[in-house]
Design a protein that fits this description.
The protein has 9 helices and no strands. It is an all-alpha fold. Helix 1 crosses helix 4, helix 4 runs parallel beside helix 7 and helix 8 packs antiparallel against helix 9.
């Protein structure tokens, strides 16, 4: 879904605590309405009613529901990036499996709020140049960090650590988003365990061109 850049910008940037609280109420109400009714039926009138404000007050902050959803997506991305940075700043486990578990768990936890809302954000969120740039920048940062880790870790057997880092970042993010947002729920502990097992086997396998050394018979 695309829309004009101006139509995605909030109209009012809160400078006082009361105004910020009103904006938070709008976003909280919108998240609830989009999750319950879907995007098409999640009208600004319903959002305003749930937030207990007038429709005129809502339009002082956001020009339309596209702008509201765009901000919800931005906050979701920022929360995920902050959680991953906190994980990176923490003491790094020695085991490759536990490092991957930390990656997977952080992404899973950022997707647990509401599967219905996740589905709306994934399918209906306006695609602006700013949003694409934010996603690309965060992805580049995660790939660079992951590649550096792979190059330093003694358990890693893959040859191309850049491609491996891209695969890990993309696999965790996409698989978690798709399966948690799916209508049929999935056990998140099972999801975490299977992701970690799959990626650990991939990273610790011998390079594809490697062959076993020929056996020598004793004389």
């Amino acid at each position: 879904m695309t829309t004009g850049r101006r139509g995605l910008q909030p109209r009012k940037q809160p400078r006082q605590a009361r105004a910020e609280l009103t904006r938070q109420r709008i976003l909280t109400a919108a998240a609830h309405i989009f999750a319950e009714y879907g995007y098409a039926a999640g009208t600004t009138n319903r959002i305003a009613e749930h937030a207990r404000i007038s429709i005129g007050s809502l339009y002082q902050y956001y020009p339309n529901k596209d702008a509201i959803l765009a901000e919800l997506v931005t906050r979701h991305l920022d929360a995920g990036a902050a959680a991953i940075r906190n994980r990176q700043d923490a003491e790094e486990p020695e085991s490759l499996e536990e490092i991957l578990r930390g990656f997977a768990r952080t992404v899973i936890e950022n997707h647990l709020d509401d599967p219905q809302l996740l589905r709306v954000m994934g399918e209906q969120a306006p695609r602006s140049p700013e949003l694409f740039e934010k996603i690309a920048r965060q992805e580049r940062e995660r790939i660079a960090y992951t590649q550096d880790l792979l190059e330093r870790h003694p358990e890693v057997g893959v040859e191309d650590t850049y491609v491996a880092a891209r695969l890990i970042v993309s696999t965790i993010e996409l698989v978690v988003h798709v399966l948690i947002a799916a209508p049929d729920s999935i056990d998140t502990t099972r999801l975490e365990n299977e992701l970690v097992a799959m990626l650990t086997r991939y990273l610790t396998a011998a390079p594809s061109g490697a062959k076993d050394a020929p056996a020598h018979e004793g004389v």
